[in-house]
Amino acid sequence: MSSANYSRTFDPRMPTGKNLYFASDFHLGAKSYASSREREDRIIRWLDLIKNDVAELFLMGDVFDFWFEYKTVVPKGYVRFLGKLAQLTDAGVKLYLFKGNHDMWMFNYFTEELGASIISNELAIVRGGKTFYLHHGDGLGPGDKLYKFLKKFFRSGVCQWLFARLHPNLGVGIANAWSRKSRIAGAKDVKKIQHQQEWLEVYSKEILETKHYDYFIFGHRHLPLDIALPGNSRYVNLGEWVNHNTYAVFDGENLELKWFEKATK
Length: 265
Description:
Largest sheet: 11 strands, mixed
Helix content: 25-40%
Protein name: UDP-2,3-diacylglucosamine hydrolase
Order of helices and strands: EEHEHEHEEHHHHHEEEEE
Structural class: alpha/beta
CATH architecture: 4-Layer Sandwich
Shape: globular
Pfam family, one: Metallophos
Number of strands: 11
Number of domains: 1
Domain Calcineurin-like phosphoesterase: 21-223
CATH topology: Purple Acid Phosphatase, chain A, domain 2
Strand content: 25-35%
CATH superfamily: Metallo-dependent phosphatases
CATH class: Alpha Beta
Radius of gyration: 18 Å
GO molecular function: hydrolase activity
EC number: 3.6.1.54
Oligomer: single chain
């Protein structure tokens, strides 16, 4: 399943007393070192909270504000977070890491170190008799043609080969300077928008015209949303962990969007 463009897993059974957990957009590394470390500690407290009842953990993109794996080098930091993930996977938790628009350059490091499945685009799963369509959410729906073009370029082998030629000090420095201009780094909060403006809702409805899913779960928008769709389907956006600290949990019957702790602003 590693580095899959499209993946599907079918397992209608859920272990008794175990849950699926979904979270997105930690943006570790953004705004500042102090802010990132505070957020990292908060995420670890959340992982400690769920460690006894999590069967599968879906981290759905932009876990890092920037990530690039050189052949023998990865970005420094995040040792507490990565250590906690290792603790969970060593205990048998299945981990899925989705490529976001900030950390699309994941290759095999997390597969080798954590046994994680790296998901490049969408993942369709069946759990507890419910169907899920999972994606970070970038490049979907109407509009944003420039980003869709840039996404294809950034994910191309040519772009990755060229970036790998840069010394890590230069490459990571350029990426961090770019990240400081991102909306998560600059925004104090994200206002909730009207449903008719939500392009991932539009995208979900388009999918429903040809195939039914009980749940569409995305990140990317930084908006905690739970929107009813036709046919008893739902679109859930996981929000982010700079302002909201939101996640979703599925207990085998129901999916619920939850808040963990209020971030210090």
